[in-house]
Write a structure and sequence with these properties.
The protein is mainly alpha-helical. The chain has 13 helices and no strands. It is globular and about 50 Å long.
């Protein structure tokens, strides 16, 4: 499990550096925050499908506690997309089309969840752990300043991991307790590394308003019509 823990640490360090680079004044703008909420909406809408598929994979049959935890997580996480919509509404901002980097995230992971569930489990580990570690205090300060401006933070606060709400650490403990063999550990580690790259690309889109993805944002019909797009940009109400 040491290689898994090292991969998570590397993800956390890179995440902290990314946030620092695009919030040099220790603040996040309204536009950046709205982009973050839109990105997260598209990332987690119907997330329960992949959690349940991962839990139901044949390779998971030996890991009862881990499988049960994934099923529980599926139904806990399922309604969280609605929080992003609520926060956007309170912010007075519209939901943006699905970013290309999120389209690529889903296009990469969806075909693998049944055939390589531990690979996908590595991606879950990233999303549950990346904002802990060195970024924890930085994110807390950014949220405090957003709160001072009166912005709704229901989604961000729920997913801001502290010592009291560190669900990611619990997941890693369950994996370690399951005593997976070396090949399974390597699959989880590789999933963590790839998910780190894909998620940081999506997060950079949120914070970097002038990113290269802006070329596509100026032709948003691409997002609606491209066969890789997994959901419409229209919000569910």
């Amino acid at each position: 499990m040491q290689s898994v823990e090292l991969a998570i640490t590397e993800a956390q360090i890179n995440f902290d550096q990314l946030v620092a680079r695009f919030t040099p004044n220790g603040e996040i703008s309204k536009q950046q925050y709205a982009r973050f909420l839109s990105m997260q909406y598209h990332l987690i809408l119907n997330i329960q499908q992949q959690f349940l598929s991962c839990a139901g994979a044949w390779e998971m049959r030996k890991y009862t506690a881990l499988r049960n935890h994934l099923v529980e997580m599926a139904f806990v996480e399922e309604p969280h997309y609605q929080l992003t919509l609520n926060d956007l509404k309170e912010l007075g901002e519209a939901l943006l089309p699905e970013p290309l980097d999120v389209i690529l995230w889903h296009a990469f992971w969806r075909p693998l969840v049944q055939t390589h569930p531990f690979f996908r489990l590595g991606a879950i580990c990233v999303l549950e752990n990346i904002s802990a570690g060195p970024a924890q205090n930085r994110i807390g300060q950014l949220l405090f300043k957003l709160s001072a401006k009166g912005y709704s933070l229901s989604f961000a606060q729920l997913h801001h991991h502290t010592e009291e709400t560190d669900h990611g650490k619990s997941l890693l403990t369950l994996i370690a307790d399951a005593k997976p063999d070396a090949s399974t550990v390597h699959e989880i580690r590789d999933g963590i590394k790839i998910a780190t790259v894909l998620y940081l690309r999506a997060f950079e889109w949120a914070l970097n308003v002038g990113s290269l993805s802006g070329l596509i944002e100026r032709t948003p019909t691409f997002v609606h019509s491209h066969p890789l797009a997994h959901v419409s940009s229209q919000a569910e109400v």
